[in-house]
Structure formats: C-alpha cells, structure tokens
Amino acid sequence: MIRIKELCKSYRTRRGPRQILKDITCTVHKGEKLGILGCNGAGKSTLIRIIGGIENPTSGSVTRTMSVSWPLAFQGGLAGGLSGLDNLRFICRIYQVDFVAARASVEEFSELGNYLQEPVKSYSAGMRARLAFAISMTVDFDCYLIDEVSAVGDRRFNEKFKNRLLDKTRDRSIIMVSHFYGVLREYCNRAAVLDAGVLRVYDDIKDAIHNYEQILYGKTITF
Amino acid sequence: MPETTQQTTFSRAFQIQMRVVSALLRRELIALSGKKGIGFLLMLVEPLIFVSAICVFFYLTRRTVGNVPVVAFAMSGYCVMWGCRFQMMKMMNVVAANRSLLYHRYVKIFDLMLGRSILQICSTSISFLMFAPIIYIGLVDFPVKPYLVVFSWLAVLWYGWSLGLITSSIYGLVKMGEKICIVIMVLHIWITGAFMMVEWLPPDYRGYYLLFPMVHATEMMRDGLFGNRVTAHYSVLYMVCANMVLTYLGLVLVRKLSQRGAMDDSD
C-alpha cells in the first residue's frame, strides 16, 4: 500500500515559491492501477517522483508498505555513459537481482541486440524506453511507476510490454501518467485528475476523462 | 523533515548503503576504463605525473633545501597538496554527472560522493607510495618517524574528504558554485604549506600561516620524513579539531543538498 498524506510541494522560482501540489491525500492499495491525468505542468511527474521517493515533499508524507519501482520515464534511471548491459549490471547490484538471468530476459525482451553493448546516450528515445522497461521487468516490484513512456515505443513493443506488464502485475499496482486515454483504459482501473495542485480520484475512468476534458478546454493554461 | 519512507532499521540501511556504494564503485571503474582496465591505471598515473614533474623541475634547479634533499621536500609538499586537492577536484561535479542514478531511491547523494572519494583515496594513496621506490633507490632516506608520515597522510585524506563534501555540495547548492569551488581549489595550492616551511617565516607571522589545517599536516609529514634536520611547527590537536569541524560542515551541507534534492535544478 502507498499512503500519501497531506502532501505539498513547492518549487522556488525566480518570482518566489510556486506551489505545485496542494495537500494531496490518497491511498493506492496493492493491486490497484491508478492513472493520472493532468495538463502540461500540472505536477504529474513531480508527484510520481515524490511517490518514488527520489524527491522530498515540502510537507506531508508518503508511506510505502510495498516495494515501488523507480519512475520509468523518458530519461532517468540509466547512466548515459554506460552501455545498456552495464546499466543492467548496476541495477542488478542495487536491487539484488541475478545478472545472468536478468541479462537473458533483457536481451529477449528489449530486442536491442548488439546495441546493448553501446552507451545508452547513443540510443533513441524509443530504444531507451525499451531498455528501461526491459530492465524494470527483471526486478520484482509491487508497484510500477510509469511516467508517459508508452508514447515512444512502437506499437509492437507497446503491445508486448502491455502483455508482460499486465501478466506480471495482475495482483500488483501501477501508477501511471499518460495523455492517452486509450492507454489509461487499457492499464488502469481507476483514474485521477491533477489540476491546480489538487488530485481528484474517480472510480470510473470515464468520469475522470470527462472532467479532465472540461478542465482542459475550459481554460487557457498559464504557467 | 517530512517522513517519506517506512522506517528502516540502521543495520538494514547500512547494508543497502554498502551495496549501493560498491555498485557505484564498480560503475565508476567501468565508466573510467571502458572495461579495458586502463582507467584505474590512468587514475593512478594522474597524480604521479604531477608529482614527478615537479620533482624533476626542482631537481634541475637545486639539490637541497636547507639540509634536506629537494626531491624529498617537493614530494612531501606536493603529495599533501594533491592528497586533498584531487579529492576536491574529482568530487566537485559528481552529483551533476550522476544525476540520473538518483532515480533509484536507494542511491543517495552522499553515496555518490562516497563512491567517488573512495576511488580517489585509493588512487592518491597508491601514488603516495611512490615514496617507497624513491627511498629504496636512496634518493630519500628512510623516514625518521614513519608513524608521523602515516598519520599525516590519513589527516590529509580526511581533510580532502571533508572539503570534497563541502565543495561538491556548494557546487550543487549555489548558482556560482563552480566558480566558488575553483577559488577554493586554487587557494589550496597556497595554503597547504607545499612550498615552504613555517620556520622560514618571521616568528610573528607563523601563527597566521598555521591557521590553515593542511600546513600542520605538511609540517608533520616533514617532521616524520626528516626528523631533526628540519624544525617543524604543528599541532596534532588543532589539525584533528579543524578536520572534525570541516567534516561536520560538509555533512550539514550534504544534508541540505539532499533535502533540496539534486533533481531540482531550479535556482
């Protein structure tokens, strides 16, 4: 279970502090799959990073009683200077996973072939996503944090990934940020809308999308 | 501080940290060497080149300083200087260079610094052992008080480590961080006592020079190497206290940087 309690986060900007998240309280139980919708700059990635424990909230708390993955995002988590395999090696050491088995699985799943020996900084966004996903699949987490990565994989890989993830996470959790309603419908059983720093959770994804659309088209975003 | 994780016991946290630091060490080695194993060798050679270049230079200009061979004099000073400067230099940008690894919750900013400094401590210490073959061929006499040499070297590493924590935190915390670090680095060419001995100064000014902790280390090193042939001025107590204060300051700054989060580039 992940329990978020009265979470606030503000960033310092040139014109003083700007509050991104206001008093968010929310619980994600094991097995629950939560999608998060929000306009650009609403604080979705920040929220994911705080849940992942790599950024500190300004106030409030996040309590994790299950293992949570690192936020799978476009970048982050992989060292650009190292090859794909060395990155895997590093992650295996940190999370105590057997490297040989993990290597076989990553080779098979990512289909990156010889590119696994090349430095990650030479990868395209899609290849990086493949590697990040493949590596994350080798570690057993109770909850996966996914920050809009499904947008870069090609369709075949996305399907492969979806099957693997859903297979693996049948009784586990996902917290996912995406702008694609289709993706959210496929993966999630609940959805939340993050707007003006407030998170509203809907039991029905349809309601969430409906409300999100109203917010989205009802205003012009000013940062 | 907001509580973000389950409470972990100290021993469990320690285990995780050891695991992370050893993984980081291997990572650094791989990144350095491109897996060919030359990287670590290069790291060893780097301080060696500096020290030997300066030795040759001094050797060509004059043979002795006072009644001490110039090579020994130069080496004792430069080893101390590089012992602390190399750590500062290499730790400076360690957080910026490894930011993407902080995506893993177990990897803390302090671990990044620790991994890098362990590597530097190894490399500078091995080049410090250059003294051994030089003593062996008779260019320098065997240290009069070896324990002082060892103790002084440990103090240098400790000082370098503390300053490394300070500079790498400043680098991340302040906009002008890089410039400030460079000033601190350049300053340390002069305030480690590499070029002269306290004895050479007029008695009235010695006190001011001895305010810098590394001067004590260098003097102690020379006392250990040359014994009665030089007059050394130092206080072990002062050096240890200064190091403790600097370590404390360094840890406070690291904590500040960790709380702020290196993910946040917004200043």
Describe the structure.
- The complex is a heterodimer of chains A (223) and B (267).
- Chain A is α/β, with parallel strands linked by helices and 223 residues long.
- Chain A has two domains: 1-69 and 143-155 and 171-223, Rossmann fold (3-Layer(aba) Sandwich), CATH 3.40.50.300; 78-140.
- In chain A, 36% of the residues lie in helices and 26% in strands.
- Chain A has seven helices and eight strands.
- Chain A has helices at residues 44-51, 84-95, 99-110, 125-138, 155-168, 181-187, 205-218; strands spanning 2-13, 16-28, 33-37, 59-64, 143-147, 173-177, 190-195, 198-202.
- The two termini of chain A are 33 Å apart.
- Chain B is mainly α.
- Chain B has one domain.
- Chain B has eleven helices and two strands, in the order H-H-E-E-H-H-H-H-H-H-H-H-H.
- Chain B has helices at 10-33, 38-61, 70-91, 94-97, 109-128, 131-136, 146-173, 177-190, 203-209, 213-226, 236-260, and strands at 64-65, 68-69.
- In chain B, strands 1-2 form a two-stranded antiparallel ribbon.
- Chain B is globular.
- The two termini of chain B are 21 Å apart.
- The chains are: A alpha/beta (223), B mainly alpha (267).
- At the A-B interface, strand 1, strand 4 and helix 2 of A face helix 1 of B.
Summarize the structure.
The complex is a heterodimer of chains A (223) and B (267). By secondary structure, chain A is of the alpha/beta class. Chain A has helices at residues 44-51, 84-95, 99-110, 125-138, 155-168, 181-187, 205-218; strands spanning 2-13, 16-28, 33-37, 59-64, 143-147, 173-177, 190-195, 198-202.
